Task: inverse folding
């Protein structure tokens, strides 16, 4: 984010309650850089959509202030915030053509007719829908309607674009294609985007940074790679990507590492978020970081496991094991030969590096 205006969007001590008792958003302090793609990610009810609605002006903050480009906007009505919005249900006007839908934000802003024509043509080209201007939304596919909604949010060149689960209604392949299209548009135009989703794969694919929400609080704010590789707590480790969880007790801590007692022995792990010796902890380990049949003594953590189930996933085989007191321990084996040499009931050795195992809060 070097060289960017980090405080282009700022939430300062923002709180939100709907009933005067329960805080849906708790003391939110967040900065979004100019030109950044920031995703608010979390389960339903975590507070992410409420943050977006407060930024858009559709919900009022109970406490605190929101700034856009240095100016407080908490008491500015939505239509005066210069913000583009893209919704999951597209929110296109069904009685208008595509061109009329795109022109609408410009007509409201009383732009000259020639400027409106120029901007609409450019917006259609931007989303590769030249030639579709005279159609109505009902004559378009879901993906085309979403492109029109995106073009309408960009046509008046807003300071900021907000997207609320915009791809939720699309099928898997179209959804993935649109992820790349939105990402490329963001890169080409240099716009600032705040994006809300509960889909962690979408967040990892598209974002510069991701804010992981739970219970009205940001649990971790980081780049996609940092969130996946270095989760700070058990919630983030479990919510971002697939993760093996082993419960144990801390036996010793030294130089940023710890020994953790588990049902099958001891694990050597990074001491990331542990309370101290004798405290319970959750060990976090990604399935793709587990090695099958490592040479004896080659890794600090080696255990004997029982194969419970093999599930074919095309590019990899998902192996469910019984090990370390866990019957749902998962290993992902790349599908190189087309067939797995493993079979249910087989006993195998597995192992992993200390650096790939993180001791987190219990």
Result:
């Amino acid at each position: 984010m070097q060289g960017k205006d980090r405080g282009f969007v700022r939430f300062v001590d923002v709180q939100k309650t709907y009933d005067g008792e329960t805080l849906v958003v708790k003391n939110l302090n967040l900065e979004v850089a100019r030109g950044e793609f920031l995703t608010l990610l979390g389960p339903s009810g975590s507070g992410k959509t409420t943050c977006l609605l407060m930024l858009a002006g559709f919900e009022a903050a109970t406490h605190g202030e929101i700034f856009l480009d240095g100016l407080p906007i908490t008491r500015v009505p939505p239509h005066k915030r210069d913000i583009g919005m893209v919704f999951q249900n597209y929110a296109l006007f069904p009685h208008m053509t595509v061109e009329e839908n795109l022109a609408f934000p410009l007509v409201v802003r009383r732009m000259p007719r020639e400027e409106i024509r120029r901007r609409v043509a450019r917006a259609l080209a931007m989303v590769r829908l030249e030639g579709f201007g005279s159609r109505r939304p009902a004559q378009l596919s879901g993906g085309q309607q979403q492109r029109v909604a995106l073009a309408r949010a960009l046509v008046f060149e807003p300071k900021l674009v907000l997207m609320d689960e915009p791809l939720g209604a699309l099928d898997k392949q179209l959804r993935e294609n649109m992820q790349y299209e939105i990402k490329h548009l963001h890169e080409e135009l240099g716009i600032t985007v705040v994006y809300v989703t509960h889909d962690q794969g979408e967040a990892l694919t598209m974002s510069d940074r991701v804010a992981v929400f739970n219970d009205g609080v940001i649990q971790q704010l980081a780049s996609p790679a940092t969130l996946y590789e270095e989760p700070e707590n058990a919630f983030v480790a479990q919510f971002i990507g697939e993760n093996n969880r082993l419960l144990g007790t801390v036996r010793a801590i030294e130089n940023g590492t710890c020994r953790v007692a588990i049902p099958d022995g001891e694990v050597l792990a990074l001491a990331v978020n542990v309370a101290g010796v004798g405290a319970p902890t959750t060990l976090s380990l990604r399935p793709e970081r587990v090695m099958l049949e490592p040479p004896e003594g080659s890794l600090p953590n080696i255990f004997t496991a029982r194969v419970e189930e093999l599930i074919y996933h095309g590019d990899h085989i998902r192996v469910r094991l019984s090990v370390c007191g866990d019957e749902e321990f998962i290993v992902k084996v790349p599908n190189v030969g087309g067939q797995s040499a493993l079979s249910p009931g087989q006993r195998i050795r597995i192992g992993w590096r200390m650096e790939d195992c993180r001791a987190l809060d219990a």
Observations:
- Residues 172-189 form the longest helix (18 residues).
- The radius of gyration is 25 Å.
- The longest strand covers residues 301-312.
